[in-house]
Amino acid sequence: MLNDIYNKRIIELAGNIPRLGRLPDPHASATAHSKLCGSTVKVDLKMDGPVVTDFAHDVKACALGQASSSIMASHVVGSTASELRELRETVRKMLKENGSPPQGKWADIALLEPVRDYKARHASTLLTFDAVVDAIGQIEARAKQPASA
């Protein structure tokens, strides 16, 4: 039942999203959009090597997209590119393949586990993870380009 996914803790996370806004000079920006529900998450990212040093986001999403964005914003700074790629895959598997939720600092994502029964809600739940991984890819691609003279 939908009440299982829109529980009190999800609503609290959705109502208290940290790091809202945009960074003035991000190393990369990425947008993820769900055609199904119209939710959109835009992220700005700064990195020092493989480590996220700053993050901001503009979240126009349902409570599930807001809750997942809230969890991301709470823990992304200090995380590595490989950790965040692995996190996206873990969340995708949790929703689509009955995988286990992540552990450690990302354990709050287990609150989103009931979403697996509502396929129409998967995209909005994954938006923040997709946007962050996209931004990381942009930063890494730029770092590999030779400096122009």
Which sequence of SSEs, written as H and E, runs from N to C?
HHEEEHHH
Estimate the mean pLDDT confidence: 94
The amount of beta strand, in percent, is 15-25%
User: What's the CATH C level?
Assistant: Alpha Beta
Distance between the termini: 60 Å
Q: How would you describe the oligomerization state of the chains in this entry?
A: single chain
Per CATH, what is the topology? Sufe protein. Chain: A
Number of individual domains: 1
For the largest beta-sheet, the strand count, sense and barrel status come to: 3 strands, antiparallel
The computed structural class is alpha+beta
Placed side by side, the strands forming the largest sheet appear as 1-2-3
Q: What's the helical proportion of residues?
A: 40-55%
Discrete helix count: 5
Low-confidence stretches: none
Please state the overall shape, judged from the principal axes of the Cα atoms. globular
Please characterize this protein's 3D structure:
The chain is globular, with a radius of gyration of 15 Å. It is built from five helices and three strands, in the order ααβββααα. 43% of the residues lie in helices and 17% in strands. The mean pLDDT is 94. Strand 2 and strand 3 form a beta hairpin. The protein has a three-stranded antiparallel sheet with strand order 1-2-3. The chain has helices at 2-5, 8-15, 63-75, 81-96, 122-144; strands at 28-33, 40-48, 51-60. GO terms for molecular function: iron ion binding; iron-sulfur cluster binding.
